[in-house]
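This part of the workshop introduces the protein records we will be handling. A learned vocabulary of local backbone shapes supplies the integers on the structure line. Getting from the letters to the tokens is the skill we practise here. As an example, a complete record with its sequence and its structure tokens follows.
=====
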Amino acid sequence: VQLVESGGGLVEAGGSLRLSCVASGFTFNDNIIAWFRQAPGKEREGVSCIRPMDGITNYVESAKGRFTVSSDTAKNTVYLQMSTLKPEDTAVYYCASGPYYYCSSNGFRSRDEFDYWGQGTQVTVSS
């Protein structure tokens, strides 16, 4: 299993970024992709998840209305479109993969339950 994130960078508050997570080594539609982030000195926290097989998504409260997760099954890629970014969104963003039941409209599993992670991509939002 390999997950490769990209798309991070430096952006001003109020700006946008689109992160990508390219997956390989497993059946994309049989699994889910979740996005997590970790700010300096803080624990890694969940952001969003998507189940490519049926498009089910879930977001944590801080991401609702600003972030949109989507998938392209032809490219085995999941995207996280982030808009109206705030300085508190500054973190390393990671994607993780897990079984299809790890993501539902009601929520997604905690970070400790995911075995496969990408290397992360840095997002910095300046004020």
User: Anything to note?
Assistant: The chain has a mean pLDDT of 97. Residues 40 and 91 are 7 Å apart (CA to CA). The longest strand covers residues 91-99. The chain is about 0% helix and 55% strand.
